[in-house]
Specification:
This protein is an alpha/beta fold and 548 residues long. 30% of the residues lie in helices and 25% in strands.
């Protein structure tokens, strides 16, 4: 079926499979707060605690989206107005997102880690007219409520509505459940997403309906979702990675499970109880699962896992050693890694492909409907084996950075090419990610790519995570410093780690080693600006004593 905009998929699903389950929300913390053990449960039995498990059918999903859309229209919102969403993952999140689109508005998802001032910044940058927020954000929104005059409609999703907002549930329940007559075209703007903010204040990325539709087709083409597949969604829905991977299930009317938590046992129990077939993980979560299995905290023979067919990873470089370990434990799993960025409507611009497991370490080949090339600073394609910047082109490329022509011109090139900011090389027909351009360390005239050293360090049996940054050096310009997180219950000192690093070329060996936690953002990316602030100018020993 040919769709003109992404809301038509929801309407089709509600029409074709009205009583089929669309979304399930699992909240293990509700059980833990009541000192109740999470027991195995059947989909046809009632949950032991009402808030532990809840679900929506496709009919419910469509009706909720329609009610929110009609409410927005009743408040005078029109095509192009902006609706900011500041919620934790929940059954309300996606109906609110699609309701905004059905009203002709742009959905503006906000990072749940934003401070009050960052929320204000993003609301002003996107020119938001409405904010929908949950109880976790009451304090932050209250701090800025008197300083966001444009945001006249503030909707609270929860109980005990604060005085500076209105109750979402009370207002929206009276709106019509019929689909609004408004229809988007593919070229129409659909959403504003924000860059991860790992390099400073985030930029506002404008995506069109045609880009969202293409993302659905990319994901389904890569991973062959059917109506019978069950997708486990753990990452935050404000990010393109989680939502656009779900799009593959959305396109075929498959069920998705929103798990509110990342503990290894919760993930495995959820896969077993909900009969999940596809799970998208971040690197730390996959490592935690394997470590819990190694420690005997998870016994796989106690779970129903034979239906689990695909584990895929994205959002960050994937250590090959991790995938080798995973395949030893789960030999029947298909594996894929997916590369993309919010500027390319999330994952899939490049992907490894389940058939290319022998090339683990590469990010892969251009995705469905995508092109890719590696270029030098003059935008000339480099030879295979040479490092350059990865450029991609396809229907998922953003329209622009909102109200930022200069930044748009820096990465959007003639003929629709998007410069990713990632350094890569082509070997044997596969693209290998080398590092972020801004993270390359130049030491004594040699280019050092931190990702290569990080992958090596994570191969040590005592290391759970590692990050490498450049530190100023009066003689070499920069030196490589490794921040290393040691697995619980294991010991590792600097002497032993330096000996392990003798297998690296001399110029790649870390000159400084710091044992500390490796900070990551909600999508798994290492927060290197934070590490540079911690260690870049301060005395290393003092800094280490303050954080380790």
């Amino acid at each position: 079926m040919d769709f003109e905009n992404i809301t038509e998929i929801l309407e089709r699903n509600a029409r074709e499979w009205p009583d089929a389950t669309a979304l399930v929300e699992i909240n293990p913390q509700e059980l833990e707060s009541c000192n109740t053990t999470w027991r195995e449960y059947s989909l046809i039995e009632s949950s032991p605690i009402e808030k532990f498990r809840s679900e929506l059918t496709w009919r419910d999903f469509e009706e909720k989206a329609n009610r929110f859309a009609n409410f927005l229209l009743s408040r005078g919102l029109t095509k192009g107005d902006k609706v900011a969403i500041l919620l934790m993952n929940s059954l309300e999140w996606l109906p609110i997102y699609f309701g905004a689109l059905k009203a002709g508005c742009l959905a503006v998802p906000l990072n749940f880690r934003y401070t009050a001032e960052e929320i204000k910044y993003c609301l002003e940058l996107s020119e938001a007219d409405v904010i929908v927020f949950g109880p976790e954000f009451t304090g932050r929104v209250e701090q800025i409520a008197g300083r966001i005059p444009r945001v006249k409609t503030r909707l609270y999703v929860g109980e005990d509505c604060p005085t500076f907002a209105q109750s979402y549930f009370r207002l929206v329940k009276y709106a019509s459940s019929s689909s609004p007559a408004f229809r988007h075209r593919g070229e129409d703007e659909a959403a504003i997403y924000f860059s991860s903010g790992t390099t400073g204040f985030p930029k506002a990325i404008v995506l069109q309906h045609k880009a969202l539709l293409h993302s659905c087709r990319v994901e389904q083409n890569h991973h062959s979702q059917t109506k019978d597949d069950v997708f486990l969604c753990i990452p935050p829905l404000y990010h393109t990675g989680a939502k656009m991977h779900w799009f593959g299930s959305f396109l075929v009317g498959g069920k998705a499970v929103l798990l509110k938590g990342v503990k290894p046992e919760w993930i495995i129990r959820c896969v077993s109880a909900e009969r999940c077939t596809i799970v998208w993980l971040l690197v730390p979560w996959a490592q935690d699962i394997l470590d819990a299995i190694d420690r005997g905290e998870i016994r796989l023979d106690e779970y129903h896992l034979t239906q689990w067919r695909l584990m895929h990873i994205g959002a960050q470089p994937v250590p090959p050693a991790l995938i080798r370990r995973w395949k030893e434990v789960f030999p029947h799993h298909e594996y894929d890694t997916n590369y993309g960025l919010s500027e390319s409507t999330g994952p899939g611009a490049v992907h490894l492909g389940v058939e290319n497991i022998d090339h683990v370490g590469a990010i892969g080949v251009p995705g469905f409907g995508w092109e890719a090339k590696i270029v030098d600073s003059s935008f000339q394609e480099v030879k295979p084996g040479c490092v350059g910047e990865l450029a991609i082109r396809g229907p998922g490329v953003m329209k622009e950075y909102y109200h930022n022509r200069e930044a748009t011109a820096e990465i959007l090139k003639p003929d629709g090419w998007l410069l990713t900011g990632d350094m890569a090389e082509l070997r044997d027909g596969f693209i290998y990610l080398v590092d972020r351009a801004k993270d390359v360390i130049i030491s004594g005239g040699e280019n050092i790519y931190p990702v290569q050293i990080e992958d090596f360090l994570r191969g040590h049996p005592a290391i759970s995570d590692a990050a490498v940054i450049g530190l100023p050096d009066s003689r070499l310009g920069e030196i490589a410093a490794a921040i290393v997180s040691v697995k619980p219950g294991m010991n590792l000192d600097e002497e032993a780690l330096n000996e392990f690093c003798l297998d690296l070329p001399r110029y790649k060996r870390p000159r400084k080693i710091i044992f500390a936690d490796v900070p990551r953002n909600p999508t798994g990316k290492i927060e290197k600006p934070k590490l540079r602030r911690l260690y870049g100018a301060a005395d290393l020993v003092a800094a280490q004593n303050g954080i380790a």
